[in-house]
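Translate sequence into C-alpha cells.
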Amino acid sequence: KRLVRFRLCPSDSCQDETSAGCDSGYGDYVMDMNTFLEAYLQGVEEEREYQCQIYEEKCDYQCDGQDDDACDQACLTGYGMSDCYQGEGDEAFDPMDYVQCAEWAGNGGDDGYQYYVGPYCGDQGGAIHLGLFTDDTCTTFSSSESFYSMSGYELPYSDQNLVSTVCASCKENADDNTNNNNADDVAELCETMYELSGKSETNTNMGG
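Result follows.
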C-alpha cells in the first residue's frame, strides 16, 4: 500500500482513456510512494513554472510592459493560467510540504492532540490523497477532529487525486535542454523516477 506502480509508454500510443496508458511497448516500474510523490510534484512545479514564464512574457508584452497587476491577472486568466498569478500576501497550501508524513502547520485542535498530514492510497489503489492523522507515521486517521473544524477549509487533495492520470511527456523542455546541456533530451522527472524504481521491461526494448 506504500508503493506506486507507473508505466512508461511510447509517445504515439499513450492514451488518457485507459488506466494503464498503453498495452504494448511499455515498461512497468515500482517505487516508494513518498519518493514518487516528491519527484512527481517537483516535476509538476517545474513544468508549471516553465509554462508560467511563457505566458507571463506574453502578458507583459500585451500589457505594454506596464507595472499593472490588474492587466497581468486578466491576461493570465484569459489564457487559462490564473494559477500563475499570486498577489502579495497570498499563501497557498503546498502539498510538497506533506509528501512525507509531517506535522500539520495549523495544529490547534480543541483536544490538545498533535496532528499530521500525509499521503495515502485511496480508491482501491487508483489514487493518492492527503489525510489527517494522529501519529507521525500517518497510519492512524483522525476520528475526533476534522481538518475542516480546525482550519475552516477542506484539506486539499483529500478527495482529489494528487497525481494526474493524463499522459505526460518525458521529453525535456527546450529551455531546460539548453540550460543544462542535457544531450539525452529526457526530462529530469522521468530520469529520476527511472533511476530510483524497480523495473520490469520485458515488453520494451529500453535498457535494463
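Note: Helices lie at 33-62, 69-78, 147-151, 174-180, 188-196.
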